[in-house]
Amino acid sequence: QPIFSAHDVSKVYRSGEVEVWALRGVDLDLFEGEMAVLLGPSGSGKSTLLNIMGGLDRASAGTVRFADQELTDYPDSRLTRFRRDHVGFVFQFYNLIPSLTAWENVALVTEISRDPMPPEEALSLVGLDKRMDHFPSQLSGGEQQRVAIARAIAKRPQVLLCDEPTGALDSKTGILVLEALDRINREFGTTTAVITHNAGIREIAHRVFTFQDGGITQMHVNERRIRPQ
Ligand code: ADP
Ligand code: ADP
């Protein structure tokens, strides 16, 4: 059962006379509980699709559905509410508040969520139970990214969208971050889509989608992981 369906989605950016087609009629279904990976060269449209799915941006054409909600025509206020209630985002840069501890950074989000997990539970899921009182400057890049993941999952989102979460990390540290995402996906069945170049992702993904010039040109199923239906 797909929880997310992007159908025939196009995105064109215009500035003056110049048009950039970031997406050209893309179809992508995500099954509930699956770990999907988006691969492809820089500029091929991965971030644009992730942002449209998460309600950060709008398609120029096509439709996007989440469960029984048709997001395409939502007014901004409703799209914002959808995003806040259902979607967790992780980006390349962690955007932690430097003057707050790891615990406090996560608590900022849980205080305004409907059914959050305690910050210490989210931090312990990403292996940071011993670092809760540390400030971002006292943590390594990989640890800061895991705080950002804890912050994203603490509101128990139905879907987790990660745009190059390993992009600023060396490959070994990146694997620790991917392992944290894998654990969350297995433990909570959180539907997850990840843009990453880290080769370790091939082990944990259910499906890998390859982008090229604003389209999906290849889909690979990982036979070693049973995909949720
Ligand atoms: P990535 O390759 O990691 O997706 P980019 O550097 O392409 O990152 O994009 C970073 C941000 O800048 C994104 O939010 C994207 O929407 C925006 N962006 C990318 N290209 C352009 C552009 N030509 N003009 C304006 N904004 C852009
Ligand atoms: P990827 O994530 O695969 O690196 P993006 O989705 O960031 O690719 O970008 C796809 C294309 O759209 C690129 O040509 C990029 O420069 C362009 N683009 C992305 N965001 C913007 C923006 N805000 N304004 C103008 N062009 C953009």
Automatic annotation (TrEMBL):
Domain of life: Bacteria
Pfam families named among the record's database cross-references: ABC_tran
Swiss-Prot/TrEMBL keywords: ATP-binding, Nucleotide-binding, Transport
All residue ranges annotated as the ABC transporter domain in the record: 4-229
GO molecular-function terms, A-Z: ATP binding
Annotated InterPro entries: AAA+_ATPase, ABC_transporter-like_ATP-bd, ABC_transporter-like_CS, MacB-like_ATP-bd, P-loop_NTPase
Protein name: ATP-binding protein
Family: Belongs to the ABC transporter superfamily.
UniProt key word ATP-binding: yes
